[in-house]
Amino acid sequence: MRKLKIAYFSGRMFSDVDLSLLMEAKEMAEIDYYVPVFKNYYKGAAFNIQKPSPKYGIYPATELYSELTPCSRLIDANRFFVVNSYASRMWYPRNLWLYIKLAWRMRRYDVIHITDFPQYYEMPLYTLRKKIVLTVHDPIPHSTAVCNTPLVLKARKWGFRLLNHFIILNTAQKEECITLNHLEKKQIYDSRLGRYDYLRMYERQHPNGAKDDYFLFFGQIASNKGIDYLLEAMKRVHEQYPWMRLIVAGKGQYPFDISEYQQLDYIEFRNRFIPDAELAELIQGAYCAVCPYKDATQSGVVMSAFAFNKPIIATNVGGLPEQVVHEKYGLIVPPCDVEALASAMIHLLSHPEKLQEFADNIQSDYAEGPKSWKDIAKGLITIYQKIVEKKS
Fold this sequence. Notes:
It contains 13 helices and 16 strands. The protein is α/β, with parallel strands linked by helices. Strand 8 (about 130-135), helix 4 (about 150-160) and strand 9 form a beta-alpha-beta unit. The longest helix has 19 residues, at about 375-390. It is globular.
């Protein structure tokens, strides 16, 4: 049986999961990876592009951006492309023409895998809708304003109406997604996230300053992340373990006043984009990572931490309990509960042997076990084959 030809079109914000997946799936199918890059949006996740190129067109990624060369050590550079536009206005005619050409180019593939609902100039992709499978990263939109703009909600509405195949990454929100969007169960395929193994190319035996003396929050700063509860919990932790610190690393606008916490010498804020090399060092050096979210789907933060077998304290929201199985890969606590969060942090500090137990479980299951990318990639190829069969 010939290998399927797949076009994998995904935004830079998902590049961490995409690279980790494609490292494994490249052996199972002929997969060409396309990433849109344009003037005001060119950084994100695994891509630390310094300056957008003014060129228009579809180019080999490393030809246009030398910063993406490290990625070519993980996937085939000959199958890695950027769809590059430069206009700052979304409806600029040249953008639309570029995506018409992209849709024409994608006719040759058996399946087109996309990871977000098409908007603006990406609409020509709908001409190939029978070939498209969409990974729905957020089956239920986050509570943040950016996830609930009229444009985003309209894009979701039309995507669910026009497309026939969807991949869901957690089972907790599957039924609600089906009901909310008037889907049939046969349209939904199950998959999951694996750990973000691409980060391991930055692994160091002895990362600078690694003392395991800090809890770590990392990721985009947003109102649903529960950082206010974490900061209050850290005060309680500090009373019993005065040597313990907290690092909050990520870019975004805090939805509350942090000036009080900035005065505390045991809390450090890095409110900026965190490059992968720095992120890898932060994760490796942390005692434990914390996801105190108020609401969530599944979390790439969890899988970034798992890349280095770092356990997680997370809240009981969305798909997080599926990822951070309580007392197996970390601890699960109720959301918006300062006392419960502080108690979990103190519990792990007083029982350091649990950290090693959790780390061993992560390595066992996510490296080669049932949650590995090899297993996930095999499932994905099966999904592609089913779509091809339904189309023929």
